[in-house]
Amino acid sequence: MKLGREIETSKPIILIIVDTLMDAPLQEAIASGKAPALKFLCETGSYLPQIVAPFPTMSVNVDTTLLTGTYCNEHKIPGLVWFNKNENRLVNYGTHYRELWKLGLSQAIDDLLYNLNESHISREVSTIHEEAEMLGKATASINALVFRGHSEHYFQLPKFLSRFTKLNTKRPVLAPRIFSYGRLSKIHPSNRNQHFWQKAGVNDASSVQQFAHIINTNSLPPFSIVYLPDLDQRIHKKGRMDLIGIQKSDQQIQAILNSFGDWESVLEEVILIVMGDNGQAWVHEKRQQAVIDLRGILRNFQIMRAGKGPFHGDQIVLAVNDRSAYVYSLDLEGAPLRALAKTLYKDKRVEVIAWKDGNDIIAISAGVEGEVRFKRGGTFMDEYGQSWFIKGNGDILNIKMNENQIHYGDFPDVLARLYSSLHSHEGEFLVASARPGYEFAGEGSPVHLGGAGHGGLHAQDSLVPMIVTGTRFLPEHQRIVDLKKWILTLLH
User: Fold this and answer.
1) In whole numbers, what is the pLDDT of the chain averaged over residues?
2) Contact (CB, 8 A) for 390 and 372
3) Domain ranges in the chain?
4) Residue 136 has what DSSP assignment?
5) What pTM value is reported for the model?
6) Whole-number Cα distances in Å, 21 to 2, 65, 91, 412
7) Per CATH, is 2-77+121-283+456-491 categorized as 2.20.25.110?
């Protein structure tokens, strides 16, 4: 296992993202014989069990960080749900049908299919697809939410969706040269695995079907990203240690390996990377215990109703990202951020609350005394080479400081991740993260009682495994934000 060694790079790179793949259940699945493909890859490659995901730990933010090599202060996607100050509305890329219906189904689908990649992701950053194309190297994106590239494609909406929306599908999206997105944009002509009850083709079987077609037609480009979404929903329902979901994901990876003939040949022909995008933290079974009802806690403030406003008199907006939440103040005099933070602070289930104060960021934690202030620059250095000024109680963020060195605990890379979220978009807001066992709820938010959720700062939400085969050249730092640079180096 070598870092930074000279490399040879004629082999295509395949990146398989298994949504919510985590180390502990993966190890148990391998030990119990439920994951032979992943076992083979672990044994023949390098296994990195603790890759740090960005915050909030929601797929749309994670995937954008992966493709752009930046945190959300640069790529400008704050999470799955956020308040767009310029358009004076709540953006939701797809949490639950109840929330989407209230916000307007057409708007939500427009945001997911078009605005996310075409206008919300900053043009100041570039994706792996865009940079590879500039090098003359084709790329492929299979069922990934974030896909911005240089080639024009057109979505074909199914009839059932066209009836309920007023989308203009005659406009193109810019994506990689080889592009598949459910049944809306297919490579393989078959409708198998593409039906409405199969999430319109955004499922593991469809992803593998489309990618196997690329392999079987000798069309494999220098870089491909293949997204396997199914495990995420099983973990939400069954909990962190569900092994059946990993077993099913492994079967899909077996199918990809089988497309090459024999598994050993894969090691010679390609660089294969398999990784999770975020973890999930366990959630209590009982609603009264598990759910942090933000509308109830903040009932003394006038809260904007979903899809209705903001109107005159509305003081705050809630943007719930499962185990984290943005709380926006529309009235700094009547609803100052510190007052909102102090209100949340009374609930011991809220682990971290942070907001900007001039150039500083202030963080507090329910059950921990005092506050901590930090900002970029200063004399303290962390393991990623980032320098910080820190003053106050470091226990709030579970950090230890020794001889100007910062050591992170339960919140990996917490300073950069909080900084990025609080500088990710315009507005006056705070961000809150729940303790394991709990999740936030607003108006119509999904909850996962007895299962698991993500979005938070905690290590349970934030650490994912990565398997690398076909090369011994590994990323300098074990964070998702560092993978783009590494992948482009492999492509060169």
Assistant:
1) 93
2) yes
3) 2-77+121-283+456-491, 287-450
4) T
5) 0.94
6) 24, 17, 27, 18
7) no
